[in-house]
Amino acid sequence: MSLRITKNVTRPQAVTIHVNGREVAAHEGESLATALIAAGALTMSRDSQGRLRSPYCNMGVCFDCLVQIEDRGRQLSARACMTLVKAGLRVTVAHE
Prior knowledge:
Low-confidence stretches: none
Number of helices: 1
Number of domains: 1
Strand content: 25-35%
Strand order of the largest sheet: 2-1-7-5-6
Shape: globular
Largest sheet: 5 strands, mixed
Mean pLDDT: 91
Radius of gyration: 13 Å
Distance between the termini: 19 Å
């Protein structure tokens, strides 16, 4: 179930990204945090004590949306709110 706003919104054609091995529809150019939240992935990282963290500031300051990304064979840690979706991304988020 998508949590996206759909009324009076136009987006480019959906592309597929993989989140913890699951196919997720997303739109190129939107932030990865937006795509993850729309897909129901509300927790993305863990703090130093192992507690789950959700996006907080959505502008790259807090690092609570830190995810692991595989892009063209490279493994990266990135802030989901500052990373743009592109087809084929493989993303690992913290989950319960």
